[in-house]
């Protein structure tokens, strides 16, 4: 998983970052809903596959106690330098092995902008198990997938059924109000049952 992304970061070919910026207004609306649901609580979040940390920084700016995790050292090093955040906010780790990656536990929110879609089925299951183990009882997962044709953009894509198979014990809802431009993908909101 990391070799292809490491090469892309080295060569500066990172189309997923542009896609992430394009979807920012939608993400901000989704985060606002999560913040309203947790008004008087310290909100802990983890940005899965954080890359160079733009979404981790967004969470921090919105007063989340946030940490980013990615398995590409160059991306994480850049995240620390670019965002002016101390390196304790980022972990070099594999989302398939979250429990032992040093990210902590008791998270209220798991943010995934294009990470899940790039994993194979066993990797997706491992990631979901780790999330379940680290999640608070009322936790939410916000997961964006570019859809099944995303192999053109660096991933296998994921549809609702893929998410449901991996996340046993979670309710999976699509976010119809979060639909973007044609082909921009789908946001899923997962809550624990």
UniProtKB/TrEMBL annotation:
GO terms for molecular function: 2-polyprenyl-6-hydroxyphenol methylase activity; 3-demethylubiquinol 3-O-methyltransferase activity. CDD domains: AdoMet_MTases. InterPro entries: Methyltransf_25, SAM-dependent_MTases_sf. Pfam families: Methyltransf_25. It comes from the Bacteria. It is an enzyme of class 2 (transferase). GO terms for biological process: methylation. Keywords: Methyltransferase, Transferase. Its EC number is 2.1.1.222, 2.1.1.64. Residues 46-137 form the Methyltransferase domain. This is Class I SAM-dependent methyltransferase. It comes from Nocardioides zeicaulis.
């Amino acid at each position: 998983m990391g070799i292809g992304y490491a090469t892309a970061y080295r060569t500066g070919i990172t189309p997923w970052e542009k896609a992430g910026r394009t979807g920012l207004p939608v993400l901000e609306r989704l985060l606002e809903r999560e913040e309203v649901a947790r008004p008087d609580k310290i909100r802990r979040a983890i940005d899965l596959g954080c890359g160079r940390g733009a979404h981790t920084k967004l969470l921090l700016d919105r007063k989340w106690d946030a940490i980013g995790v990615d398995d590409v050292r160059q991306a994480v090093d850049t995240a620390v330098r670019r965002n002016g955040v101390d390196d304790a906010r980022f972990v070099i780790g594999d989302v398939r092995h979250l429990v032992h990656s040093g990210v902590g536990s008791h998270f209220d929110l798991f943010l995934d902008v294009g990470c899940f879609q790039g994993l194979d089925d066993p990797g997706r299951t491992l990631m979901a198990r780790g999330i379940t183990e680290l999640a608070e009882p009322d936790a939410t997962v916000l997961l964006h997938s570019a859809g099944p044709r995303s192999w053109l953009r660096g991933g296998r894509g994921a549809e609702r059924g893929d998410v449901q198979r991996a996340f046993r014990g979670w309710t999976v809802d699509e976010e119809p109000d979060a639909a973007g431009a044609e082909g921009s993908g789908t946001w899923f909101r997962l809550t624990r049952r």
